[in-house]
Amino acid sequence: MRFVANPKAAIGLTLMGIFVLMAVIGPWISPYDPSTRSNDLVAPPSAAHWLGTTHLGQDILSQLLSGTRSVIEVGLLAGVVASILALLVGVTSGYLSGGGAETLSALSNVFLVIPALPLIIIITSILPETGDFTIAMVIGLTSWAWGARVLRAQTLSLRNRDYVEAARATGEKTWRILLFEIMPNLTAVIASNFIGTVIFAVTSEITLAFIGVNTSGDSWNWGTILFWAQGQQALAQGAWWWFVPAGLAIALLGTALALLNFGIDEFVSPRLRGNGRTKVKTVDGDTVRMRVGFTPVLGFGRRDTP
Fold first, then answer.
1. Using CA atoms, how far apart are residues 71 and 198, in angstroms rounded to an integer?
2. Dihedral class, residue 292 (left if φ above 0, else alpha if ψ from -120 to 50, else beta)
3. pLDDT, tens digit, for every residue of 182-193?
4. Cα–Cα distance between 229 and 200 in angstroms, integer?
């Protein structure tokens, strides 16, 4: 409950819950089929079309609601895949020693210097089908290296701690040491890596759709809406309702994930807990608010000695 009591975490969870709910029930509550055409061409918001229509008379609200599921599915699935790979490679290469650990470390270094987005574009372009599952797997399999490097560095700093040495001296198996001694201390890093990967996956999928990858068929996401808006010169036509809702949804989702990340950092870090502030009382009864990174000089009143 202390995590939920954090204002940043509470706002992030609320926004994320709204988007997840939209992803679950969005296609069911859409007023129209997102691909259905009508005679209301580039119509502004009205009672019939709350967010207006496209150049083909398609309802933008229906496209936005239907596209939320694709964005959330790709983001969460890619985040899970990348987090699992980063955990396996990073913790294993950080705790073990020898040729196997060096090979895993070199592998993560290779993936680290490969530009992820161009690689994703090439892979998705040559595949016969580029559905949501395929895009999520491609993003997850190409975006784990940074998290693996961070987890490896943290594991290297933990493997020689006293409690790990004690567990090793008592004959604990390696998998038990990793699972019960090392990984609990990496919870914040794992959670932060997962959220960062979800943000990257969401932006990557939207970017792919915006540049024309995976825009065929009846598959909709927020990037597809922006793709057609840009292609049909929505800004030049003054059709702000065509691109503003999708852009606002992207910004709100990114804000929700960022707030969750900040909330996790403050929850696990004593220095950041309580927004990084703590109150200290002096002998005079005054209250001094200490900030992280600053060491205030407290003025003590003169006491009369007997």
1. 10
2. beta
3. 988 888 888 888
4. 23
Distance between CA atoms of residues 208 and 127, nearest Å = 14
Of 64, 76, 44, the closest CA to residue 250 belongs to 64
Please state, as a whole number, how many other Cβ atoms lie within 10 Å of the Cβ of residue 13.
Answer: 17
Ordered by where they begin, the domains of the chain are 2-276 (1.10.3720.10)
Q: Which helix (H) or strand (E) holds 289?
A: strand 287-291
Half-sphere exposure of 103 (CA within 13 A, CB side): 3
SS3 state of residue 242: helix
Q: Which residues of 45-74 are buried (b: 16+ CB within 10 A; e: fewer)?
A: eeeebebbbbbebbbbbbbbbbbbbbbbbb
Report pLDDT digits (tens) over 109-144: 888 888 877 887 888 778 777 778 888 888 898 889
Give percent of the chain above pLDDT 90: 37
Distance CA 300, CA 286 (A): 10
E strands, the chain, in order: 277-281, 287-291
Q: How far is it between the farthest Cα atoms of the chain?
A: 95
User: Which phi and psi angles does 280 have, rounded to 5°?
Assistant: -125, 135
Instruction: Please tell me the distance from the alpha carbon of residue 142 to that of residue 85, in angstroms, as a whole number.
Output: 10
In this prediction, residues 173-190 reach a mean pLDDT of: 88
Output Rg (C-alpha) for the chain, integer angstroms: 25
Count of H-run helices and E-run strands, the chain? 13, 2
